[in-house]
Write a structure and sequence with these properties.
The protein is α/β, with parallel strands linked by helices. It has helices spanning 17-27, 57-65, 85-93, 104-114, 128-138, 143-157, 172-190, and strands at residues 6-10, 31-33, 37-38, 53-54, 69-74, 80-84, 97-101, 118-124, 165-168. It has a single domain, classed as P-loop containing nucleotide triphosphate hydrolases (Rossmann fold, 3-Layer(aba) Sandwich). The strands form two sheets. The protein has a five-stranded parallel β-sheet with strand order 2-7-1-8-9, with helices on both faces. A four-stranded mixed β-sheet has the order 4-3-6-5, with helices on both faces. Helix 5 runs antiparallel to helix 6. 33% of the residues are buried. The mean pLDDT is 92. Bound molecules: adenosine-5'-diphosphate and guanosine-5'-monophosphate.
């Protein structure tokens, strides 16, 4: 099995992590999304097995009991989210770099397990006011959910310096280029032939 090289991208909700992660997967052939499992219900545009594996609380608990998760956390509204060992192992075996989009505690857990074999980015919003605007204009959250996410963001921002690279997502193209310039040598130096 090749030495695992994971990419972890972490950010307060609404900071632009999904937007950036999608651009990376579209541009780099060797980077693949790690599809997580969750007990949250799917949004209208989400597909099972593509965006998440949508599980019942019992199914999720069973996977915890049998050790199928590399890490898992309870995030919003008591919903659970977890990184599946099998997904990561298969991607690495097939020669890809898994890209993990997880919240801060999950990311710290992965960093602890993988050490140097993982490169991590913290996407920082320019300010909490701008974060609120982005969450509002995305149109996916209720007022209550936005308030919860902003409260959580304040705590998460304090942990930014625990990650390898802090990227301020002011202008999307600029932030993306910054990440790309860091990731390009990492991917080129580590990719396996397949
Ligand atoms: P996350 O995955 O971190 O929750 P998203 O990628 O869904 O965040 O981004 C939240 C919203 O902000 C989306 O509507 C997205 O289009 C927008 N967005 C992302 N980056 C920027 C940026 N640099 N400037 C303005 N809007 C942005
Ligand atoms: P959403 O419900 O908006 O898709 O995701 C909510 C939060 O859960 C995001 O911060 C996302 O990064 C995080 N998340 C998604 N998958 C996982 C996972 O497998 N593990 C952990 N720890 N967090 C996750």
């Amino acid at each position: 099995m090749p030495d695992p090289k994971l990419i972890v991208i972490v950010a307060p909700s609404g900071a632009g992590k999904t937007t950036i992660a999608r651009k990376l997967v579209a541009e780099f052939n060797h980077i693949r999304f790690s599809v997580s499992a969750t007990t949250r219900p799917p949004r209208s545009y989400e597909r099972d097995g593509v965006d998440y594996y949508f599980l019942t609380p019992d199914e999720f608990q069973h996977k915890i009991d049998v050790g199928e998760f590399l890490e898992w956390e309870e995030v919003f509204n008591n919903y659970r989210y977890g990184t599946l060992r099998s997904v990561i192992e298969k991607q690495i075996k097939d020669g890809y770099f898994p890209l993990l989009d997880v919240e801060v505690n999950g990311a710290l857990n992965i960093k602890e397990q993988f050490g140097d074999r993982c490169i991590s980015f913290f996407i920082q919003p320019p300010s909490l006011e701008i974060l609120r605007d982005r969450l509002t204009s995305r149109g996916t959250e209720t007022e209550q959910s936005i308030a919860y996410r902003l409260n959580r963001a304040e705590k998460e921002l304090k942990l930014a310096d625990r990650f390898d690279h802090v990227i301020v997502n002011d202008d999307l193209d600029r932030a993306y280029e910054e990440i790309k310039s860091i990731l390009t040598p990492f991917v080129l130096n580590n990719q396996t032939n397949h």
